[in-house]
Amino acid sequence: MTSFLQNLVNAMQWGSFYALIALGYSMVYGVLMLFNFAHGDIFMVGAYIGFFVSSGLIALSALGSLVLPSWLILSITILLAMFLTSFVGMLLERVGYRPLRSAPRASAAITGLMIGIILETGNLALLGAQRYKFPALIESTTYNLGGVFITNKKILIVFVSLLLMFALHQFVQRTKWGMAMRAMAYDYIVVPLMGVPINTIALLTFALGSALAAAAGILFGIAYPVLDPYMGILYGWKAFVAAILGGRGSIIGAALAGFLLGFIEIFVAAFISSTLRDLIAYSIILLILTFRPHGFFGEAYSARLRL
Amino acid sequence: MSLLQIEKMTHYFGGLRAVHDYNLEIEPGQIRGLIGPNGAGKTTIFNLITGIYSPTEGRIHLEGKDLIGLQPHQVASLGLGRTFQNLRLWRHMTVLEHVMQARYSKLTYGVVGALLGTPKRYRQEAESERIAYELLDLVGVKHLADQVVINLPYGAQRRVEMARALAIEPKILFLDEPTAGMNLEELSQIMETIRRIHNEFDLTIFLIEHRMKFVMELCDVIQTLVFGEVIAEGTPEAIQNNPEVIDAYLGKEIET
Protein backbone atom coordinates (compact mmCIF):
# COMPACT_ATOMS: atom_id res chain seq x y z
CA MET A 1 0.00 0.00 0.00
CA THR A 2 2.75 2.44 0.90
CA SER A 3 4.47 1.54 -2.31
CA PHE A 4 1.27 2.27 -4.20
CA LEU A 5 0.87 5.65 -2.48
CA GLN A 6 4.53 6.43 -3.05
CA ASN A 7 4.13 5.78 -6.75
CA LEU A 8 0.94 7.79 -6.81
CA VAL A 9 2.81 10.79 -5.46
CA ASN A 10 5.55 10.33 -8.02
CA ALA A 11 2.99 9.93 -10.78
CA MET A 12 1.27 13.18 -9.81
CA GLN A 13 4.54 15.03 -10.29
CA TRP A 14 5.41 13.23 -13.50
CA GLY A 15 1.94 13.76 -14.90
CA SER A 16 2.05 17.49 -14.10
CA PHE A 17 4.72 18.05 -16.73
CA TYR A 18 2.79 16.17 -19.40
CA ALA A 19 -0.47 17.88 -18.49
CA LEU A 20 0.98 21.40 -18.62
CA ILE A 21 2.61 20.79 -22.00
CA ALA A 22 -0.41 18.96 -23.41
CA LEU A 23 -2.62 21.96 -22.67
CA GLY A 24 -0.63 24.05 -25.13
CA TYR A 25 -1.04 21.49 -27.89
CA SER A 26 -4.71 21.19 -27.23
CA MET A 27 -5.47 24.91 -27.08
CA VAL A 28 -3.68 25.67 -30.30
CA TYR A 29 -5.38 22.78 -32.02
CA GLY A 30 -8.74 23.78 -30.65
CA VAL A 31 -8.52 27.39 -31.73
CA LEU A 32 -6.50 27.24 -34.95
CA MET A 33 -6.85 23.61 -35.95
CA LEU A 34 -3.16 23.02 -36.27
CA PHE A 35 -0.71 20.89 -34.36
CA ASN A 36 2.14 23.04 -33.17
CA PHE A 37 4.94 20.52 -33.37
CA ALA A 38 7.44 23.05 -32.06
CA HIS A 39 5.63 23.09 -28.72
CA GLY A 40 7.99 20.60 -27.06
CA ASP A 41 10.84 22.90 -27.93
CA ILE A 42 8.99 25.84 -26.40
CA PHE A 43 9.06 23.79 -23.20
CA MET A 44 12.84 23.57 -23.61
CA VAL A 45 13.17 27.29 -24.34
CA GLY A 46 11.07 28.03 -21.26
CA ALA A 47 13.33 25.89 -19.11
CA TYR A 48 16.40 27.74 -20.41
CA ILE A 49 14.82 31.15 -19.93
CA GLY A 50 13.98 30.07 -16.40
CA PHE A 51 17.56 28.97 -15.96
CA PHE A 52 18.92 32.37 -16.99
CA VAL A 53 16.41 34.36 -14.98
CA SER A 54 17.01 32.38 -11.82
CA SER A 55 20.79 32.27 -12.27
CA GLY A 56 20.77 36.03 -12.74
CA LEU A 57 18.69 36.62 -9.65
CA ILE A 58 20.86 34.28 -7.60
CA ALA A 59 24.01 36.02 -8.83
CA LEU A 60 22.55 39.40 -7.88
CA SER A 61 21.74 38.08 -4.44
CA ALA A 62 25.24 36.66 -4.07
CA LEU A 63 26.77 40.00 -5.05
CA GLY A 64 24.64 41.62 -2.43
CA SER A 65 23.21 44.17 -4.86
CA LEU A 66 19.70 42.73 -4.75
CA VAL A 67 19.15 40.26 -1.99
CA LEU A 68 15.92 38.37 -2.41
CA PRO A 69 14.49 35.53 -0.35
CA SER A 70 14.44 32.24 -2.20
CA TRP A 71 10.64 32.00 -2.44
CA LEU A 72 10.63 35.36 -4.19
CA ILE A 73 13.37 34.26 -6.60
CA LEU A 74 11.30 31.19 -7.39
CA SER A 75 8.13 33.20 -7.97
CA ILE A 76 9.83 35.80 -10.11
CA THR A 77 11.56 33.08 -12.11
CA ILE A 78 8.31 31.29 -12.88
CA LEU A 79 6.33 34.43 -13.72
CA LEU A 80 9.04 36.19 -15.70
CA ALA A 81 9.95 33.05 -17.65
CA MET A 82 6.29 32.46 -18.47
CA PHE A 83 5.99 36.05 -19.62
CA LEU A 84 9.13 35.97 -21.78
CA THR A 85 8.37 32.56 -23.25
CA SER A 86 4.89 33.71 -24.25
CA PHE A 87 6.65 36.13 -26.61
CA VAL A 88 8.55 33.25 -28.17
CA GLY A 89 5.20 31.57 -28.76
CA MET A 90 3.69 34.72 -30.25
CA LEU A 91 6.70 35.16 -32.53
CA LEU A 92 6.23 31.59 -33.67
CA GLU A 93 2.60 32.27 -34.52
CA ARG A 94 3.30 35.53 -36.28
CA VAL A 95 6.31 34.41 -38.30
CA GLY A 96 5.78 30.69 -38.68
CA TYR A 97 2.10 29.96 -38.73
CA ARG A 98 0.11 33.04 -39.68
CA PRO A 99 1.47 33.26 -43.24
CA LEU A 100 0.42 29.62 -43.68
CA ARG A 101 -3.09 29.89 -42.28
CA SER A 102 -4.69 29.17 -45.62
CA ALA A 103 -1.96 26.76 -46.73
CA PRO A 104 -2.45 22.97 -46.64
CA ARG A 105 -2.30 21.44 -43.16
CA ALA A 106 0.90 19.57 -43.94
CA SER A 107 2.76 22.83 -44.57
CA ALA A 108 1.92 24.11 -41.13
CA ALA A 109 2.88 20.77 -39.60
CA ILE A 110 6.33 20.70 -41.18
CA THR A 111 6.77 24.37 -40.28
CA GLY A 112 6.41 23.31 -36.67
CA LEU A 113 8.97 20.54 -37.11
CA MET A 114 11.42 22.93 -38.80
CA ILE A 115 11.00 25.61 -36.16
CA GLY A 116 11.60 22.92 -33.57
CA ILE A 117 14.89 22.00 -35.21
CA ILE A 118 15.81 25.68 -35.45
CA LEU A 119 15.15 26.20 -31.76
CA GLU A 120 17.18 23.13 -30.79
CA THR A 121 20.15 23.86 -32.99
CA GLY A 122 19.91 27.59 -32.35
CA ASN A 123 20.26 26.86 -28.67
CA LEU A 124 23.24 24.62 -29.45
CA ALA A 125 24.86 27.37 -31.52
CA LEU A 126 24.30 30.02 -28.88
CA LEU A 127 25.12 28.10 -25.74
CA GLY A 128 27.32 25.25 -26.94
CA ALA A 129 26.96 21.56 -26.30
CA GLN A 130 27.57 21.62 -22.57
CA ARG A 131 24.65 20.86 -20.33
CA TYR A 132 23.49 23.41 -17.83
CA LYS A 133 22.55 22.62 -14.30
CA PHE A 134 19.33 24.23 -13.23
CA PRO A 135 20.00 26.12 -9.95
CA ALA A 136 18.48 24.71 -6.80
CA LEU A 137 15.76 27.25 -6.16
CA ILE A 138 14.40 25.58 -3.07
CA GLU A 139 16.12 23.57 -0.43
CA SER A 140 14.83 20.06 -0.54
CA THR A 141 13.00 18.76 2.50
CA THR A 142 11.51 15.30 2.71
CA TYR A 143 8.46 14.51 4.78
CA ASN A 144 7.75 10.98 5.88
CA LEU A 145 4.04 10.37 6.01
CA GLY A 146 3.62 6.83 7.28
CA GLY A 147 6.31 5.43 5.01
CA VAL A 148 5.40 7.57 2.01
CA PHE A 149 8.11 10.07 1.25
CA ILE A 150 7.02 13.42 -0.08
CA THR A 151 9.45 16.19 -0.86
CA ASN A 152 8.52 19.84 -0.71
CA LYS A 153 9.55 20.03 -4.37
CA LYS A 154 6.90 17.51 -5.37
CA ILE A 155 4.26 19.40 -3.43
CA LEU A 156 5.35 22.64 -5.09
CA ILE A 157 5.32 21.15 -8.57
CA VAL A 158 1.89 19.58 -8.29
CA PHE A 159 0.44 22.61 -6.53
CA VAL A 160 1.76 25.13 -9.08
CA SER A 161 0.59 22.93 -11.95
CA LEU A 162 -2.92 22.58 -10.60
CA LEU A 163 -3.06 26.30 -9.84
CA LEU A 164 -2.08 27.17 -13.41
CA MET A 165 -4.62 24.75 -14.83
CA PHE A 166 -7.32 26.28 -12.68
CA ALA A 167 -6.27 29.78 -13.77
CA LEU A 168 -6.38 28.74 -17.42
CA HIS A 169 -9.81 27.24 -16.97
CA GLN A 170 -11.08 30.45 -15.36
CA PHE A 171 -9.54 32.52 -18.13
CA VAL A 172 -11.10 30.47 -20.89
CA GLN A 173 -14.51 30.31 -19.22
CA ARG A 174 -14.84 33.81 -17.90
CA THR A 175 -13.00 36.40 -19.95
CA LYS A 176 -13.95 37.85 -23.30
CA TRP A 177 -10.77 36.42 -24.85
CA GLY A 178 -11.43 32.97 -23.46
CA MET A 179 -14.92 33.12 -24.85
CA ALA A 180 -13.52 34.18 -28.21
CA MET A 181 -11.13 31.22 -28.13
CA ARG A 182 -14.00 28.85 -27.57
CA ALA A 183 -16.08 30.52 -30.27
CA MET A 184 -13.21 30.19 -32.74
CA ALA A 185 -13.09 26.50 -32.02
CA TYR A 186 -16.68 26.07 -33.15
CA ASP A 187 -16.88 28.44 -36.09
CA TYR A 188 -14.06 30.86 -36.69
CA ILE A 189 -15.56 32.47 -39.80
CA VAL A 190 -18.18 34.40 -37.85
CA VAL A 191 -15.92 35.40 -34.98
CA PRO A 192 -14.47 38.52 -36.68
CA LEU A 193 -17.97 39.48 -37.83
CA MET A 194 -18.84 39.92 -34.17
CA GLY A 195 -16.05 42.47 -33.81
CA VAL A 196 -13.38 40.09 -32.52
CA PRO A 197 -9.87 40.40 -34.04
CA ILE A 198 -8.94 36.77 -34.66
CA ASN A 199 -5.24 37.49 -35.04
CA THR A 200 -5.19 38.80 -31.49
CA ILE A 201 -6.93 35.65 -30.29
CA ALA A 202 -4.46 33.47 -32.21
CA LEU A 203 -1.52 35.28 -30.61
CA LEU A 204 -3.08 34.98 -27.20
CA THR A 205 -3.61 31.25 -27.65
CA PHE A 206 0.05 30.75 -28.48
CA ALA A 207 1.07 33.03 -25.60
CA LEU A 208 -0.97 31.06 -23.07
CA GLY A 209 0.21 27.67 -24.33
CA SER A 210 3.84 28.79 -24.34
CA ALA A 211 3.60 30.29 -20.86
CA LEU A 212 2.29 26.99 -19.51
CA ALA A 213 5.09 25.12 -21.31
CA ALA A 214 7.61 27.50 -19.70
CA ALA A 215 6.16 26.79 -16.28
CA ALA A 216 6.45 23.07 -17.04
CA GLY A 217 10.07 23.64 -18.08
CA ILE A 218 10.98 25.35 -14.82
CA LEU A 219 9.17 22.83 -12.66
CA PHE A 220 10.93 20.10 -14.61
CA GLY A 221 14.25 21.85 -13.97
CA ILE A 222 13.48 21.91 -10.27
CA ALA A 223 12.83 18.16 -10.24
CA TYR A 224 15.47 17.09 -12.79
CA PRO A 225 18.02 19.88 -12.86
CA VAL A 226 19.88 19.08 -16.09
CA LEU A 227 19.03 21.05 -19.21
CA ASP A 228 19.90 20.09 -22.74
CA PRO A 229 18.72 21.47 -26.08
CA TYR A 230 16.94 18.27 -27.06
CA MET A 231 15.03 17.81 -23.83
CA GLY A 232 11.83 19.07 -25.45
CA ILE A 233 11.59 16.40 -28.10
CA LEU A 234 10.65 13.33 -26.08
CA TYR A 235 8.50 15.16 -23.54
CA GLY A 236 6.90 17.15 -26.32
CA TRP A 237 5.93 14.01 -28.19
CA LYS A 238 4.60 12.34 -25.09
CA ALA A 239 2.57 15.40 -24.16
CA PHE A 240 1.25 15.42 -27.72
CA VAL A 241 0.08 11.87 -27.14
CA ALA A 242 -1.68 13.12 -24.00
CA ALA A 243 -3.37 15.90 -25.97
CA ILE A 244 -4.71 13.38 -28.49
CA LEU A 245 -5.68 10.95 -25.77
CA GLY A 246 -7.61 13.70 -24.00
CA GLY A 247 -9.57 14.43 -27.14
CA ARG A 248 -8.25 17.00 -29.57
CA GLY A 249 -9.05 20.49 -28.37
CA SER A 250 -10.34 19.45 -24.98
CA ILE A 251 -8.62 21.35 -22.20
CA ILE A 252 -9.87 19.20 -19.36
CA GLY A 253 -9.15 16.13 -21.46
CA ALA A 254 -5.56 17.21 -22.06
CA ALA A 255 -4.95 17.81 -18.36
CA LEU A 256 -6.48 14.49 -17.31
CA ALA A 257 -4.69 12.56 -20.04
CA GLY A 258 -1.41 14.20 -19.04
CA PHE A 259 -1.81 12.90 -15.53
CA LEU A 260 -2.96 9.50 -16.79
CA LEU A 261 0.17 9.25 -18.91
CA GLY A 262 2.25 10.00 -15.85
CA PHE A 263 0.42 7.33 -13.86
CA ILE A 264 0.80 4.67 -16.53
CA GLU A 265 4.51 5.35 -17.00
CA ILE A 266 5.30 5.41 -13.29
CA PHE A 267 3.25 2.33 -12.45
CA VAL A 268 4.59 0.31 -15.35
CA ALA A 269 8.11 1.22 -14.26
CA ALA A 270 7.38 0.38 -10.64
CA PHE A 271 5.44 -2.84 -10.99
CA ILE A 272 6.34 -4.32 -14.36
CA SER A 273 9.65 -3.22 -15.76
CA SER A 274 11.51 0.06 -15.81
CA THR A 275 13.53 -0.76 -18.90
CA LEU A 276 10.38 -1.62 -20.83
CA ARG A 277 8.48 1.32 -19.38
CA ASP A 278 7.72 3.22 -22.57
CA LEU A 279 7.22 0.09 -24.64
CA ILE A 280 4.53 -1.18 -22.32
CA ALA A 281 3.06 2.21 -21.37
CA TYR A 282 2.53 3.33 -24.94
CA SER A 283 1.18 -0.05 -25.99
CA ILE A 284 -1.48 0.44 -23.34
CA ILE A 285 -2.26 3.91 -24.69
CA LEU A 286 -2.43 2.56 -28.23
CA LEU A 287 -4.95 0.05 -26.98
CA ILE A 288 -7.02 2.80 -25.31
CA LEU A 289 -7.04 4.78 -28.54
CA THR A 290 -8.20 1.72 -30.45
CA PHE A 291 -11.34 1.72 -28.36
CA ARG A 292 -11.68 5.49 -28.06
CA PRO A 293 -10.20 6.82 -31.30
CA HIS A 294 -11.33 10.36 -30.52
CA GLY A 295 -9.83 10.32 -27.05
CA PHE A 296 -11.64 10.81 -23.78
CA PHE A 297 -13.44 14.05 -24.53
CA GLY A 298 -13.29 13.99 -28.31
CA GLU A 299 -16.22 13.66 -30.65
CA ALA A 300 -16.04 12.77 -34.31
CA TYR A 301 -16.19 15.81 -36.58
CA SER A 302 -17.36 17.97 -33.79
CA ALA A 303 -16.37 21.04 -31.89
CA ARG A 304 -12.69 21.46 -31.45
CA LEU A 305 -12.29 23.14 -28.08
CA ARG A 306 -14.46 21.95 -25.27
CA LEU A 307 -14.47 22.63 -21.60
CA MET B 1 -25.90 61.94 -46.23
CA SER B 2 -26.82 58.31 -46.64
CA LEU B 3 -26.00 55.90 -43.86
CA LEU B 4 -24.46 53.36 -46.20
CA GLN B 5 -23.30 54.29 -49.65
CA ILE B 6 -21.94 51.86 -52.22
CA GLU B 7 -20.75 53.00 -55.61
CA LYS B 8 -19.90 50.89 -58.62
CA MET B 9 -18.95 47.81 -56.67
CA THR B 10 -17.73 44.94 -58.83
CA HIS B 11 -16.33 41.64 -57.70
CA TYR B 12 -14.69 38.78 -59.53
CA PHE B 13 -14.03 35.25 -58.28
CA GLY B 14 -11.18 34.37 -60.61
CA GLY B 15 -12.71 34.91 -64.05
CA LEU B 16 -16.30 34.81 -62.80
CA ARG B 17 -17.98 38.16 -62.38
CA ALA B 18 -20.14 37.68 -59.31
CA VAL B 19 -21.22 41.27 -58.78
CA HIS B 20 -21.29 43.96 -61.41
CA ASP B 21 -21.54 47.70 -60.95
CA TYR B 22 -23.57 47.49 -57.78
CA ASN B 23 -24.87 50.73 -56.25
CA LEU B 24 -26.73 51.20 -53.01
CA GLU B 25 -27.79 54.05 -50.79
CA ILE B 26 -29.46 53.25 -47.51
CA GLU B 27 -31.07 56.03 -45.49
CA PRO B 28 -31.25 55.81 -41.70
CA GLY B 29 -34.30 53.92 -40.46
CA GLN B 30 -35.08 52.17 -43.74
CA ILE B 31 -35.81 48.51 -44.19
CA ARG B 32 -34.27 47.48 -47.48
CA GLY B 33 -34.72 44.23 -49.31
CA LEU B 34 -32.49 42.37 -51.75
CA ILE B 35 -34.18 39.68 -53.82
CA GLY B 36 -33.09 37.56 -56.72
CA PRO B 37 -32.82 33.97 -57.92
CA ASN B 38 -30.37 31.52 -56.36
CA GLY B 39 -26.79 32.30 -57.28
CA ALA B 40 -27.54 35.91 -58.20
CA GLY B 41 -24.84 37.13 -55.83
CA LYS B 42 -26.93 38.35 -52.89
CA THR B 43 -24.86 36.77 -50.14
CA THR B 44 -21.69 37.82 -51.97
CA ILE B 45 -22.87 41.42 -51.64
CA PHE B 46 -23.32 40.94 -47.89
CA ASN B 47 -19.87 39.38 -47.68
CA LEU B 48 -18.36 42.29 -49.59
CA ILE B 49 -19.97 44.91 -47.37
CA THR B 50 -19.07 43.15 -44.13
CA GLY B 51 -15.46 42.79 -45.19
CA ILE B 52 -15.19 39.03 -45.70
CA TYR B 53 -14.23 39.74 -49.30
CA SER B 54 -12.61 42.89 -50.60
CA PRO B 55 -14.35 44.09 -53.78
CA THR B 56 -12.32 44.10 -56.98
CA GLU B 57 -13.59 47.62 -57.70
CA GLY B 58 -15.84 50.17 -56.11
CA ARG B 59 -16.36 52.19 -52.97
CA ILE B 60 -18.21 51.46 -49.72
CA HIS B 61 -18.84 54.20 -47.17
CA LEU B 62 -20.55 53.93 -43.80
CA GLU B 63 -21.47 57.41 -42.54
CA GLY B 64 -18.85 58.77 -44.89
CA LYS B 65 -16.16 56.41 -43.57
CA ASP B 66 -14.40 54.24 -46.15
CA LEU B 67 -14.78 50.53 -45.36
CA ILE B 68 -12.55 49.18 -48.12
CA GLY B 69 -9.41 47.56 -46.79
CA LEU B 70 -10.68 47.27 -43.23
CA GLN B 71 -10.56 43.92 -41.47
CA PRO B 72 -13.92 42.21 -40.88
CA HIS B 73 -13.71 42.80 -37.13
CA GLN B 74 -13.15 46.52 -37.71
CA VAL B 75 -16.13 46.72 -40.05
CA ALA B 76 -18.26 44.91 -37.48
CA SER B 77 -17.17 47.22 -34.67
CA LEU B 78 -18.05 50.24 -36.79
CA GLY B 79 -21.63 49.06 -36.76
CA LEU B 80 -22.47 46.31 -39.24
CA GLY B 81 -24.13 43.33 -37.62
CA ARG B 82 -25.28 40.30 -39.55
CA THR B 83 -26.92 36.92 -39.47
CA PHE B 84 -26.30 34.01 -41.83
CA GLN B 85 -28.27 32.05 -44.33
CA ASN B 86 -27.06 28.76 -42.89
CA LEU B 87 -26.94 29.30 -39.16
CA ARG B 88 -23.47 29.89 -37.85
CA LEU B 89 -23.65 29.47 -34.12
CA TRP B 90 -21.02 28.18 -31.71
CA ARG B 91 -22.63 24.84 -31.09
CA HIS B 92 -21.80 24.07 -27.51
CA MET B 93 -21.81 27.60 -26.12
CA THR B 94 -24.84 28.93 -24.31
CA VAL B 95 -27.28 31.45 -25.73
CA LEU B 96 -26.11 34.09 -23.25
CA GLU B 97 -22.47 33.47 -24.16
CA HIS B 98 -23.26 34.06 -27.82
CA VAL B 99 -24.64 37.48 -27.12
CA MET B 100 -21.92 38.34 -24.59
CA GLN B 101 -19.25 37.37 -27.10
CA ALA B 102 -20.55 39.90 -29.58
CA ARG B 103 -19.96 42.60 -26.93
CA TYR B 104 -16.21 41.95 -27.28
CA SER B 105 -15.34 45.33 -28.76
CA LYS B 106 -17.42 47.10 -26.10
CA LEU B 107 -15.49 45.54 -23.23
CA THR B 108 -12.33 47.53 -22.74
CA TYR B 109 -10.77 45.88 -19.72
CA GLY B 110 -7.22 44.64 -20.27
CA VAL B 111 -5.57 41.29 -19.62
CA VAL B 112 -4.22 42.50 -16.28
CA GLY B 113 -7.67 43.75 -15.30
CA ALA B 114 -9.09 40.37 -16.20
CA LEU B 115 -6.51 38.46 -14.18
CA LEU B 116 -6.81 40.67 -11.13
CA GLY B 117 -10.56 41.03 -11.41
CA THR B 118 -10.67 44.82 -11.26
CA PRO B 119 -13.97 46.60 -10.50
CA LYS B 120 -13.91 47.92 -14.09
CA ARG B 121 -14.04 44.39 -15.44
CA TYR B 122 -16.93 43.35 -13.26
CA ARG B 123 -18.83 46.57 -13.94
CA GLN B 124 -18.41 46.18 -17.70
CA GLU B 125 -19.38 42.53 -17.64
CA ALA B 126 -22.45 43.16 -15.53
CA GLU B 127 -23.48 45.90 -17.94
CA SER B 128 -22.92 43.59 -20.90
CA GLU B 129 -24.93 40.86 -19.31
CA ARG B 130 -27.81 43.24 -18.65
CA ILE B 131 -27.81 44.33 -22.30
CA ALA B 132 -27.58 40.72 -23.43
CA TYR B 133 -30.67 39.76 -21.42
CA GLU B 134 -32.56 42.74 -22.81
CA LEU B 135 -31.74 41.71 -26.37
CA LEU B 136 -32.68 38.11 -25.71
CA ASP B 137 -35.97 39.35 -24.33
CA LEU B 138 -36.51 41.50 -27.39
CA VAL B 139 -36.11 38.58 -29.80
CA GLY B 140 -38.05 36.28 -27.50
CA VAL B 141 -35.47 33.74 -26.31
CA LYS B 142 -34.64 35.12 -22.87
CA HIS B 143 -35.94 31.96 -21.20
CA LEU B 144 -33.34 29.94 -23.13
CA ALA B 145 -30.36 32.03 -21.99
CA ASP B 146 -28.55 29.19 -20.23
CA GLN B 147 -29.19 26.58 -22.90
CA VAL B 148 -26.50 25.30 -25.21
CA VAL B 149 -27.50 26.39 -28.72
CA ILE B 150 -27.16 22.98 -30.34
CA ASN B 151 -30.17 21.80 -28.31
CA LEU B 152 -32.47 24.58 -29.51
CA PRO B 153 -35.10 24.35 -32.22
CA TYR B 154 -34.29 25.98 -35.51
CA GLY B 155 -36.44 29.06 -35.06
CA ALA B 156 -34.90 29.82 -31.68
CA GLN B 157 -31.42 29.49 -33.17
CA ARG B 158 -32.31 32.11 -35.76
CA ARG B 159 -33.38 34.42 -32.96
CA VAL B 160 -30.12 33.84 -31.11
CA GLU B 161 -28.29 34.92 -34.26
CA MET B 162 -30.33 38.09 -34.34
CA ALA B 163 -29.65 38.89 -30.69
CA ARG B 164 -25.95 38.26 -31.28
CA ALA B 165 -25.91 40.60 -34.26
CA LEU B 166 -27.72 43.26 -32.23
CA ALA B 167 -25.23 42.96 -29.38
CA ILE B 168 -22.49 44.67 -31.38
CA GLU B 169 -24.81 47.71 -31.44
CA PRO B 170 -25.10 47.84 -35.22
CA LYS B 171 -26.04 50.89 -37.23
CA ILE B 172 -27.29 48.53 -39.91
CA LEU B 173 -28.50 44.98 -39.35
CA PHE B 174 -27.92 42.57 -42.23
CA LEU B 175 -30.28 39.60 -42.28
CA ASP B 176 -29.45 36.86 -44.75
CA GLU B 177 -32.67 34.92 -45.41
CA PRO B 178 -34.13 35.24 -41.93
CA THR B 179 -37.06 32.95 -42.79
CA ALA B 180 -35.14 30.11 -44.44
CA GLY B 181 -36.52 26.78 -43.32
CA MET B 182 -39.45 28.24 -41.41
CA ASN B 183 -43.10 27.29 -41.61
CA LEU B 184 -45.89 29.85 -42.07
CA GLU B 185 -46.56 30.31 -38.38
CA GLU B 186 -42.89 30.89 -37.58
CA LEU B 187 -42.77 33.21 -40.56
CA SER B 188 -45.32 35.62 -39.17
CA GLN B 189 -43.64 35.49 -35.75
CA ILE B 190 -40.21 36.33 -37.15
CA MET B 191 -41.71 39.15 -39.18
CA GLU B 192 -43.18 40.57 -36.02
CA THR B 193 -39.82 40.24 -34.27
CA ILE B 194 -38.03 42.08 -37.08
CA ARG B 195 -40.60 44.87 -36.86
CA ARG B 196 -40.14 45.05 -33.12
CA ILE B 197 -36.35 45.30 -33.49
CA HIS B 198 -36.80 47.97 -36.12
CA ASN B 199 -39.13 50.04 -33.96
CA GLU B 200 -37.21 49.60 -30.71
CA PHE B 201 -33.95 51.05 -32.03
CA ASP B 202 -35.23 52.78 -35.15
CA LEU B 203 -32.72 50.40 -36.67
CA THR B 204 -31.82 50.32 -40.33
CA ILE B 205 -32.19 46.83 -41.76
CA PHE B 206 -30.97 45.29 -44.99
CA LEU B 207 -32.31 41.85 -45.70
CA ILE B 208 -32.05 39.10 -48.29
CA GLU B 209 -35.19 37.06 -48.75
CA HIS B 210 -36.86 34.64 -51.10
CA ARG B 211 -40.39 34.84 -49.78
CA MET B 212 -42.09 37.61 -51.71
CA LYS B 213 -44.94 38.15 -49.29
CA PHE B 214 -42.47 38.72 -46.50
CA VAL B 215 -40.29 41.14 -48.45
CA MET B 216 -43.23 43.06 -49.86
CA GLU B 217 -44.81 43.58 -46.46
CA LEU B 218 -41.65 44.53 -44.62
CA CYS B 219 -39.45 46.56 -46.94
CA ASP B 220 -39.52 50.21 -47.96
CA VAL B 221 -37.31 49.76 -51.00
CA ILE B 222 -36.36 46.56 -52.80
CA GLN B 223 -33.55 45.73 -55.20
CA THR B 224 -33.72 42.79 -57.60
CA LEU B 225 -30.43 41.15 -58.42
CA VAL B 226 -29.93 38.83 -61.39
CA PHE B 227 -26.52 37.44 -62.35
CA GLY B 228 -24.80 39.99 -60.12
CA GLU B 229 -26.58 42.99 -61.61
CA VAL B 230 -29.42 45.06 -60.23
CA ILE B 231 -32.21 44.90 -62.78
CA ALA B 232 -34.78 46.82 -60.79
CA GLU B 233 -34.99 48.98 -57.69
CA GLY B 234 -38.09 50.52 -56.16
CA THR B 235 -41.02 50.25 -53.81
CA PRO B 236 -42.68 46.86 -53.32
CA GLU B 237 -45.51 47.83 -55.72
CA ALA B 238 -43.11 48.95 -58.42
CA ILE B 239 -41.06 45.76 -58.09
CA GLN B 240 -44.12 43.54 -58.14
CA ASN B 241 -45.27 45.02 -61.41
CA ASN B 242 -41.90 45.31 -63.06
CA PRO B 243 -41.90 43.08 -66.18
CA GLU B 244 -38.17 42.40 -65.94
CA VAL B 245 -38.53 41.11 -62.40
CA ILE B 246 -41.42 38.92 -63.42
CA ASP B 247 -39.32 37.57 -66.28
CA ALA B 248 -36.39 36.83 -64.02
CA TYR B 249 -38.54 34.92 -61.57
CA LEU B 250 -41.14 33.30 -63.79
CA GLY B 251 -39.53 33.27 -67.21
CA LYS B 252 -40.65 35.19 -70.29
CA GLU B 253 -44.08 34.71 -71.70
CA ILE B 254 -43.86 33.11 -75.10
CA GLU B 255 -45.57 35.14 -77.78
CA THR B 256 -48.06 33.11 -79.65
What does this 3D model show about the protein?
The complex is a heterodimer of chains A (307) and B (256). Chain A is mainly alpha-helical and 307 residues long. Chain A has a single domain (2-291), classed as ABC transporter involved in vitamin B12 uptake, BtuC (Orthogonal Bundle), CATH 1.10.3470. Helix content of chain A is 71%, strand content 4%. Chain A is built from ten helices and four strands; from the N terminus they run ααααβββαααβααα. Chain A has helices at residues 2-32, 39-63, 70-97, 105-127, 152-174, 176-186, 198-223, 231-246, 251-271, 277-291; strands spanning 132-133, 142-145, 148-151, 226-227. In chain A, strand 2 (142-145) and strand 3 form a beta hairpin. Chain A starts with a helix and ends in a 16-residue tail after the last helix. Chain B has 256 residues and is α/β, with parallel strands linked by helices. Chain B has one domain (4-250): Rossmann fold. In chain B, helix 3 packs parallel to helix 6 (154-167) and helix 5 packs across helix 6. The chains are: A mainly alpha (307), B alpha/beta (256). The interface between A and B is medium-sized, with 25 and 30 residues.
Radius of gyration of chain A: 19 Å
Residues in β-strands, percent of chain B: 15-25%
Sheet having the most strands of chain B? 6 strands, mixed
Strand content of chain A: under 5%
**Name of the CATH architecture of chain A:** Orthogonal Bundle
- Here the CATH topology of chain A equals ABC transporter involved in vitamin B12 uptake, BtuC
Unreliable stretches of chain B: none
Task: Work out the count of structural domains of chain A.
Answer: 1
Largest interface: A-B, 25 and 30 residues
Q: What is the overall pLDDT average of chain B?
A: 90
Structural shape of chain B: globular
Query: What is the averaged pLDDT score of chain A?
Result: 90
Biggest sheet strand order of chain A reads 1-4
Query: Which class of secondary structure composition applies to the elements of chain B?
Result: alpha/beta
Order of helices and strands of chain B: EEEHEEHEHHHHEHEHEEHH
Q: Main sheet of chain A?
A: 2 strands, antiparallel
Largest sheet: spatial strand order of chain B: 6-7-8-3-9-10
